Automatic annotation (TrEMBL):
<comment type="similarity">
    <text>Belongs to the adenylate kinase family.</text>
</comment>
<feature type="domain" description="Adenylate kinase active site lid">
    <location>
        <begin position="123"/>
        <end position="158"/>
    </location>
</feature>
<feature type="binding site">
    <location>
        <position position="146"/>
    </location>
    <ligand>
        <name>Zn(2+)</name>
    </ligand>
</feature>
<feature type="binding site">
    <location>
        <position position="123"/>
    </location>
    <ligand>
        <name>ATP</name>
    </ligand>
</feature>
<dbReference type="InterPro" id="IPR033690">
    <property type="entry name" value="Adenylat_kinase_CS"/>
</dbReference>
<dbReference type="Pfam" id="PF00406">
    <property type="entry name" value="ADK"/>
</dbReference>
<dbReference type="InterPro" id="IPR006259">
    <property type="entry name" value="Adenyl_kin_sub"/>
</dbReference>
<feature type="binding site">
    <location>
        <position position="37"/>
    </location>
    <ligand>
        <name>AMP</name>
    </ligand>
</feature>
<keyword id="KW-0418">Kinase</keyword>
<feature type="binding site">
    <location>
        <position position="126"/>
    </location>
    <ligand>
        <name>Zn(2+)</name>
    </ligand>
</feature>
<feature type="binding site">
    <location>
        <position position="167"/>
    </location>
    <ligand>
        <name>AMP</name>
    </ligand>
</feature>
<feature type="binding site">
    <location>
        <position position="129"/>
    </location>
    <ligand>
        <name>Zn(2+)</name>
    </ligand>
</feature>
<dbReference type="InterPro" id="IPR007862">
    <property type="entry name" value="Adenylate_kinase_lid-dom"/>
</dbReference>
<dbReference type="InterPro" id="IPR036193">
    <property type="entry name" value="ADK_active_lid_dom_sf"/>
</dbReference>
<feature type="binding site">
    <location>
        <position position="149"/>
    </location>
    <ligand>
        <name>Zn(2+)</name>
    </ligand>
</feature>
<keyword id="KW-0479">Metal-binding</keyword>
<keyword id="KW-0547">Nucleotide-binding</keyword>
Length: 218
């Protein structure tokens, strides 16, 4: 059983690296942001509660975030473990998490703020199947269309200059201290996130003393 938390500023590749790691090790990838986005897209009651907050780049209330995490982990479908991305994001969430779950390692994807804007503003998502693209590093074959399902590529509602500035500010104010706390308590592995996807994955696996991946392509 492997239980990891993955940290990093917006655009550091948390989702991408968590997916690669999970796919290869049969871990469950739990992205709190993805769960909230699913609720917004599907017009659920929770979606209605969080939509505006998310679009503004602010943090959803702790009770809602903790509820989502608890409900997801309570499914106990993670026989081989999990990678949790986007949680905990502040001191209270960290306290809740440490009280309820023990983790093996914390992965920190280290990206300078100067690189964040360039990456995030180039990010696109397929509106139909959710596949990620990036107009710098991973362009679709046909402009604006998903290579996999032909769906329309859109920007996340919170990938705007304004919301991004707020998300970065909150990250440094509230999430940086959580990382510092984990550094004192747990085994934190910091990896330079400026490299390409494959190199970052290789480096973090080496740092976690994991075997070479079964699946080679990103
Ligand atoms: P992410 O995809 O991780 O960037 O998350 C997108 C948005 O979802 C954030 O900007 C928040 O509005 C909300 N969110 C995700 N995780 C949390 C969390 N742990 N606590 C509060 N809000 C969250």
């Amino acid at each position: 059983m492997r239980k990891y938390v993955i940290f990093g500023v917006q655009g550091s590749g948390k989702g991408t690296q968590a997916k690669l790691l999970s796919r290869d090790l049969d871990l469950v990838h739990i992205s709190v942001g993805d769960i909230f986005r699913w609720h917004v897209q599907n017009h659920t009651k929770l979606g209605a509660q969080v939509r505006r907050i998310m679009a503004a780049g602010e943090l959803v209330g702790d009770d809602l975030a903790e509820g989502v995490v608890r409900e997801r982990l309570d499914l106990h479908d993670w026989n081989y473990g999990f990678v949790i991305d986007g949680f905990p994001r502040n001191a209270r969430q960290a306290e809740f998490f440490l009280e309820s779950y023990d983790i093996d390692s914390v992965i920190h994807l280290d990206l300078p703020d100067g690189e964040v804007r360039r990456r995030v503003l180039a990010r696109r998502l397929c509106a139909r199947c959710g596949m990620d693209y990036n107009l710098i590093a991973h362009r679709p074959e046909e402009e604006g269309r998903c290579d996999v399902c032909g769906g329309e590529l859109v920007a996340r509602e919170d990938d705007t200059e304004e919301a991004l500035a707020e998300r970065l500010r909150i990250y440094h104010e509230k999430t940086d201290p959580v990382l510092a706390l984990f550094r004192r308590k747990e085994f934190v592995v910091s990896v330079d996130a400026r490299a390409d996807i494959g190199t970052v994955q290789k480096n973090l696996r080496e740092r976690l003393a994991l075997p070479a991946p079964r699946v080679s392509e990103p």
